[in-house]
Amino acid sequence: MKLFDAHSHMHMGPRGLVIPAAVEQTPFTFDGAAIMSTHPRDYIKVDSIVSGLRDRDYRAVPCYGIHPWFLYDVLTSSDEEVDWLGELKQRLLDHPDAIVGEIGLDGNRWVEVKQSDQAEESIWKRERVLACPMELQRKAFEEQLVLAAELQRPVSIHVVSAWGELFAAFENVRERMKHKHDQMAVKVMDGQRKRQKTKTKLLPPKIYFHAFSGKAGALPSIRSACAKGNIPLEDIYFGFPPAIKNFYAPKTPGIMREIGIRQLLLETDLEDATSAWDDLKRGVSGISEALDMTESEVATETYKNVHRFYFEPV
Ligand SMILES: [Zn+2]
């Protein structure tokens, strides 16, 4: 039985390419990983890890996009106007097997603003602001979603304390895509202008909420926001990496049950992949306990899911 890491940042780790391997006797083997960019400077490193895995006969998926934690740096670090969106589009066109990720919204990543150069200030005077203003996050997120929808690529999404913003972004993207399709779909039929009524996808065709941090109560709203963009329930996936403490939260087993085995992906979210094998196994154990399934069933089912998400054509 094979385990695939659906969300890895191995390219950012101290060792780079690491093949996660078991030291114990196990029925499981490592199958491969999806390597998630966080910044345009990652793209070449992602390509190198993907080639390294494929050269060793593992499966690998390149993922390109800008993570909300690094967005401010991308938008402000260069003197010249950075065409990060054009670069991303070209990357995706050059790599038809690539998906869009990691992109998203983070309302809980703060940086401290220095009030003055005086070293010893009262901690109460310290001010903190979001690592990237939400307005800029929203704009970049929507642009990347539109790109994924236009090119019909799946997305891996990070959302922390920004669900309201996510729903608003989805609504904007649906409207933008609807407008584009309406313009294309107006056809002259029987001498009259009629609109072609098709279930055109108005959001990226498959959506993966990685490191899901929402409550079970948020799931109906998420499903409905996707359904309004003609993305059915079976194309919405969720992951819970053991490296993020939410994995161990008391609410998590109930949320996993509410999501159901068919929509769960195994993921590590790790940079240093030396502990990736342990985390993949922890993921299997956690789901097995939450859903009252055997570990073999969990491995088999999540592997089918990863196949549908990454390797079946849209
Ligand atoms: Zn990540």
From TrEMBL:
List keywords of the entry alphabetically.
Hydrolase
GO MF, one term, reads: hydrolase activity, acting on ester bonds
Domain of life from the UniProt record: Eukaryota
SUPFAM superfamilies, sorted: Metallo-dependent hydrolases (SSF51556)
Database matches in InterPro entries: Metal_Hydrolase, Metallo-hydrolase/TatD-type, TatD-like
Provide the E.C. number(s) assigned to this enzyme: 3.1.13.-
* Name of the protein this chain belongs to: TatD family deoxyribonuclease
